[in-house]
């Protein structure tokens, strides 16, 4: 614990007299280098026949990283230069990643907003060809809502029971095996869920395409998410609550249903909403099981339906501009729905956080 | 891989047997051994029913996996028996012809290559984002950015596909030409023409899995004990040295498993790839040529006109994808299981 005391009469008046810190770059230096890199790249863009914006951005990033490191090596020395290098890399990675991600949102909003009017929500695609203006997503919204609701009705109670088993009863090998396969199911590609329902429900049982078949496929995808989030939340419930229940002579099953689950409920609801938001955007399983239609079919148990992701997929695949415009508008609606679900789920989680 | 679900089906089937054997191995309820003795005769029945209900649900989950495997295998064998080519080595895909000839080689190649290139692009950038959010950004900004990354991870893949097809693909032409001009001596970047290639699909996939990997890595980095970071800084480490000695070693298993989950996503991704790639069935080392296909995209593209054998063939290829993604996931899980305390897989 001996401290090397640096004592000097005038250390306060001249803190740098002892040269405890090496030469450092001023704070504005990285910004200046960045500005320089951008200017140089823009000059290249204007003066040479390089025609891709992506290249210019990459070039500016590269110039920035190299120049900062070189300047830093010269002025500050090796260790600090390596630190600078890492810092610039991290900043550049962040900026480079933000560009496409923001670009996705910006293009969806700018290209989608044009077609968003009341008619878009109240009309189906009945009688609308790819070359026609008009048409809407009424049938797709009905399909998405019904399929996702049915999937939740199937998956949530089942997933909750599995989670209760894993947390409250599960000991030994069976629960470890179940827990393992929950993880396997988490990684199941969505198209496999679609293929399974296609092979099982549509072909083997010969039930035909329907919204319900789609709901089955979505439920397969929802179950692991619900199990995992419910499991995490049930684990957070303090053991004292369970013990208090037992001490009052309440049987275990009533303790679980009346004390443990209600305590964890806000977290479980959040997990369910996130799962709903995820499956609402799934295209592949719905494509294989619901088939898609241009008509309004509000009965999920018979006949083809549509859904928002499916609608986007089918419209985007057509070369006509009107169809592509409809795809963008539907994409905007889908993103808004999913974002709202996510935000509400997270706000809910934030407000009711378990202590 | 198929033997495991089979055995679990056996376990799931005799439901009564589980009920019968339950009482002797009835473990004391969590933290309350006193309750087990009190009034066992009266409350036992309801407790037993509820316990077995939850256990049945758990076993039902195993049965579900078994059923998935069994039905995929059943449908696939039907088509595989009719196949006149070697399923694993044939590049062509003519399952609807008579006689049917198809193989998974070309699509499996496309799946692996596009996912691998996507990983090479996405993982370093995602780790950079996670480091930026957890270490570099100011505190208020970092929580907002964390939210935004989580939200971006929820954007559906069909939207990325739409964007990749209409916005990104035209912009990628320049950089592909440039790579072709200056790095054409590397076989990967050679070829006569560029267009909607495996490379473009990989970039779309990379952008798609970026938020997922970043969100999971961020969670892992957040769990690095503050004391470790402060100790490194107190010893005079620069910020990068602190990251290298404290953050990265602690977060490595979590980052690897996050990347594996991203890899699983990338390989299973259907719609984004189906929209971007022109479907073609040949194995070509030229990443930039407008060609290529993946298993998942082939299912989405090909199943509309598929006849009975054709559907079976698609299901067979789906089975291959299932097995490959399962292996990836098991590896990811094994890595996380070695250091249990930060499984980032709950998002």
From TrEMBL, chain A:
Gene3D superfamilies assigned to the protein according to its UniProt record, in alphabetical order: MetI-like
Subcellular compartments: Cell membrane
Domain ABC transmembrane type-1: 141-345
An individual GO BP term: phosphate ion transmembrane transport
Annotated keywords: Cell membrane, Membrane, Phosphate transport, Transmembrane, Transmembrane helix, Transport
Record membrane topology: Multi-pass membrane protein
Record has Signal as a keyword: no
CDD domains: TM_PBP2
Cytoplasm as UniProt keyword: no
Cellular component GO terms, alphabetical: plasma membrane
UniProt GO MF annotations: phosphate transmembrane transporter activity
InterPro entries associated with the record: MetI-like, MetI-like_sf, Phosphate_PstA, Phosphate_transprt_permease
Main location: membrane
Domain of life: Bacteria
Membrane-crossing residue ranges in chain numbering: 28-48, 54-75, 87-109, 148-168, 180-203, 209-227, 259-280, 327-349
Family: Belongs to the binding-protein-dependent transport system permease family. CysTW subfamily.
Function (record text): Part of the binding-protein-dependent transport system for phosphate; probably responsible for the translocation of the substrate across the membrane.
This protein's name: Phosphate transport system permease protein PstA
TrEMBL record, chain B:
UniProt key word Transmembrane helix: yes
Gene Ontology BP term (one): phosphate ion transport
Alphabetical list of Pfam families matching this protein: BPD_transp_1 (PF00528)
Xref: CDD domains: TM_PBP2 (cd06261)
Record-annotated membrane-spanning stretches: 57-77, 108-137, 144-169, 197-216, 270-289, 309-332
Keyword Methyltransferase included in the entry's annotation: no
Positions with biased composition (Low complexity): 9-23
Ranges where the ABC transmembrane type-1 domain occurs: 108-332
Molecular function GO labels: phosphate transmembrane transporter activity
Keywords: Cell membrane, Membrane, Phosphate transport, Transmembrane, Transmembrane helix, Transport
InterPro entries tied to this protein: MetI-like, MetI-like_sf, Phosphate_PstC, Phosphate_Transport_Permease
SUPFAM superfamilies documented for this protein: MetI-like
PANTHER family named in the record: PHOSPHATE TRANSPORT SYSTEM PERMEASE PROTEIN PST, PHOSPHATE TRANSPORT SYSTEM PERMEASE PROTEIN PSTC
Family: Belongs to the binding-protein-dependent transport system permease family. CysTW subfamily.
Function: Part of the binding-protein-dependent transport system for phosphate; probably responsible for the translocation of the substrate across the membrane.
NCBIfam families the UniProt entry points to: phosphate_pstC
Name of the protein: Phosphate transport system permease protein
Species: Frankia torreyi
């Amino acid at each position: 614990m001996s401290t090397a005391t640096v004592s000097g009469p005038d250390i306060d008046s001249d803190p740098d007299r002892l040269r405890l810190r090496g030469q450092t770059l001023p704070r504005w230096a990285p910004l200046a280098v960045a500005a320089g890199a951008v200017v140089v790249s823009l000059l290249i863009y204007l003066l040479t026949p390089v025609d891709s914006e992506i290249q210019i951005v990459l070039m500016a990033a590269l110039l920035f990283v190299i120049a900062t490191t070189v300047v830093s090596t010269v002025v500050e020395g090796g260790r600090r230069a390596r630190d600078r290098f890492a810092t610039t890399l991290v900043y550049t990675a962040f900026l480079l990643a933000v560009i496409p991600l923001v670009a996705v949102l910006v293009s969806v909003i700018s290209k989608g907003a044009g077609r968003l009017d009341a008619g878009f929500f109240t009309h189906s695609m009945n009688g609308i060809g790819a070359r026609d203006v008009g048409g809407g997503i009424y049938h797709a919204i009905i399909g998405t809502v019904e399929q996702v609701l049915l999937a939740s009705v199937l998956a949530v109670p089942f997933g909750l029971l599995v989670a209760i088993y894993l947390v409250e009863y599960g000991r030994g090998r069976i629960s470890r095996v179940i827990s393992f396969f929950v993880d396997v199911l988490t990684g199941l590609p969505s198209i496999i869920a679609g293929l399974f329902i296609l092979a099982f429900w549509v072909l083997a049982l010969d039930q035909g395409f329907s919204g319900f078949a789609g709901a089955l496929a979505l439920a397969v995808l929802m179950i692991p998410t619900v199990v995992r989030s419910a499991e995490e939340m049930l684990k957070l419930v303090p053991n004292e609550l369970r013990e208090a229940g037992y001490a009052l002579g309440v049987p275990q099953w009533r303790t679980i249903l009346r004390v443990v689950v209600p305590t964890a409920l806000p977290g479980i609801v959040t997990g369910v909403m996130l799962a709903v938001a995820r499956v609402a955007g799934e295209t592949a399983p719905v494509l294989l099981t619901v088939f898609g239609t241009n008509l309004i079919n509000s009965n999920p148990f018979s006949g083809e339906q549509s859904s928002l992701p499916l609608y986007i997929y089918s419209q985007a695949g057509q070369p006509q501009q009107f169809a592509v415009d409809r795809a963008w508008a539907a994409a905007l609606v889908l993103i808004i729905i999913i974002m709202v679900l996510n935000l509400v789920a997270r706000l809910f989680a934030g407000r009711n956080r378990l202590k | 891989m198929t033997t495991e679900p089979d055995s679990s089906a056996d376990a799931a089937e005799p439901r009564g047997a589980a009920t019968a054997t339950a009482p002797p191995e009835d473990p004391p309820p969590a933290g309350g051994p006193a309750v087990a003795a009190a009034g066992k005769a009266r409350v036992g029945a309801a407790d037993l029913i509820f316990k077995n209900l939850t256990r049945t649900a758990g076993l039902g989950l195993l049965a579900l996996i078994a059923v998935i495997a069994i039905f995929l295998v059943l449908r696939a064998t039907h088509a595989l028996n009719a196949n006149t080519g070697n399923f694993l080595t044939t590049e062509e895909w003519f399952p609807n012809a008579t006689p049917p000839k198809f193989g998974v080689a070309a699509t499996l190649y496309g799946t692996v290559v596009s996912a691998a290139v996507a990983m090479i692009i996405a993982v370093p950038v995602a780790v950079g984002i996670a480091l930026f959010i957890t270490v570099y950004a100011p505190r208020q900004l970092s929580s907002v950015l964390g939210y935004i990354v989580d939200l971006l991870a929820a954007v559906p893949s069909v939207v990325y596909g739409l964007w990749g097809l209409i916005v990104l693909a035209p912009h990628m032409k320049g950089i592909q030409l440039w790579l072709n001009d200056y790095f054409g001596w590397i076989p990967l970047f050679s070829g006569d023409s560029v267009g909607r290639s495996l490379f473009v699909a990989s970039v779309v996939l990379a952008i798609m899995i970026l938020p997922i990997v970043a969100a999971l890595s961020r969670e892992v980095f957040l769990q690095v004990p503050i004391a470790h970071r402060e100790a490194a800084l107190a010893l005079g480490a620069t910020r990068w040295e602190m990251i290298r000695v404290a953050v990265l070693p602690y977060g490595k298993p979590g980052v690897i498993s996050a990347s594996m989950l991203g890899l699983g996503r990338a390989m299973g991704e259907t719609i984004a790839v189906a929209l971007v790639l022109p479907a073609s069935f040949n194995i070509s080392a030229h990443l930039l040529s407008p060609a290529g296909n993946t298993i998942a995209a082939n299912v989405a593209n090909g199943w509309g006109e598929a006849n009975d054998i054709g559907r079976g063939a698609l299901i067979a290829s789906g089975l291959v994808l299932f097995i490959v993604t399962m292996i990836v996931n098991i590896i990811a899980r094994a890595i996380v299981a070695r250091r249990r305390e930060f499984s980032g897989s709950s998002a």
